[in-house]
Amino acid sequence: MRKSSFSLATLMIIIMTSLSSCAAIGGIFKAGMTFGIVGVLLVVILVIYLISRSRR
Predict the structure, then answer these.
(1) Residues 38, 48: Cα–Cα separation, whole Å
(2) Mean pLDDT, the chain, as a whole number?
(3) What values do phi and psi take at 20, rounded to 5?
(4) Using an 8 Å Cβ cutoff, are 12 and 4 in contact?
(5) How far is CA 25 from the centre of its chain?
(6) Residues 14, 19, 20, 21: what is their CA dihedral angle, to the nearest 10 degrees?
(7) pLDDT recorded at residue 3
(8) Do residues 1 and 9 make contact, with C-beta atoms less than 8 angstroms apart?
(9) Considering only CA atoms, which of 27, 1, 38 is closest in space to residue 9?
(10) pLDDT tens for residues 42-52?
(11) From the centroid of its chain, how far is CA 23?
């Protein structure tokens, strides 16, 4: 790679990562929240299922 194209590539990578970092963090928190809600629901369903099986 020539020096000018290397500098341009480096600059582009820095700009892309700095501009999208807030959006990426927001996406991670949304995915984490969704995963947490689904996880809690699955645990509650599993507990209810196990309690109902033990009473028979």
Answers:
(1) 15
(2) 80
(3) -95, 0
(4) no
(5) 8
(6) 80
(7) 60
(8) yes
(9) 1
(10) 999 999 999 99
(11) 11
